[in-house]
Amino acid sequence: MEKLVEKAVAEALGDGDSQAIRLYVAASTERMTPLFMGLRANTPGRESDLDFYAESVRDLWHADQPLADATERVRLLERFPELQPNEEGITDVVDTYAFFAVLTLRYALLANGSGNADAAVSCGHAALTAMGMLDLNVAGASFLAEEQRLQSLSLSSDAAGLWDASVTAGQERFRAVLGRLPR
After folding, report:
1. What is the mean pLDDT of residues 125-129?
2. What is the 3-state secondary structure (H, E, C) of 45-109?
3. Which of 16, 34, 113, 160 gives 170 a disulfide partner, CB atoms 3.0 to 4.6 angstroms apart?
4. Buried b vs exposed e over 53-87: b needs ≥16 C-beta within 10 Å?
């Protein structure tokens, strides 16, 4: 399967150190966070999942060292309903974007714990796939191009403002997805 992550980004991840990989996945996940948090906020019984997700994203930003419990977090995340197979598949807007947000976090945790560039590329690929789908469904949208720009920025030597840019991008994505929901 061809990855959507730009070749230069994938090469930088492969050539980069573990801290650069951890920063990249933290930023990618931050941009997807409003999709999970916002779309699942009022789902009964998901309070602990929301807390776990938010805590994991917060902890990913401590990019100077890997999370000691990254493997355990992946195991817990894999119990989320979004990652459980079902016969119907994912068919609605809310479930689609919540799935991609959880998948992004899964790969981020894997990359954080291992320093594995392939897991980081998979994290970026999941975010790019979701944004490509959003572009297809929102007239005039350019979420895919913005995600590509921010992924490149997260690997540059001037990553100042990356958290702010990631939070803002995540909020814009959430508003766009909300605009696709039936009223």
Report:
1. 97
2. CCHHHHHHHHHHHHHHCCCCCCCCCHHHHHHHHCCCHHHCCCCCCCCCHHHHHHHHHHHHHHHHH
3. 34
4. beebbebbbebeebbeebeebbeebeebebeeeee
First CA to last CA distance, the chain: 36
| Angle of CA points 176, 45, 127, to nearest 5° | 35
* 135 token code pair: 């572009």
C-beta separation of 30 from 57 below 8 A: yes
Name the token pair of 38.
């916002």
Q: Nearest 5°: CA angle at 64, between 107 and 152?
A: 55
Name the nearest CA neighbour of 179 among 128, 139, 146: 139
pTM over 0.85: yes
Number of alpha helices (DSSP H) and beta strands (DSSP E) in the chain: 8, 0
Evaluate whether 28 touches 127 at the Cβ level (below 8 Å). yes
Query: In residues, how long is the chain?
Result: 183
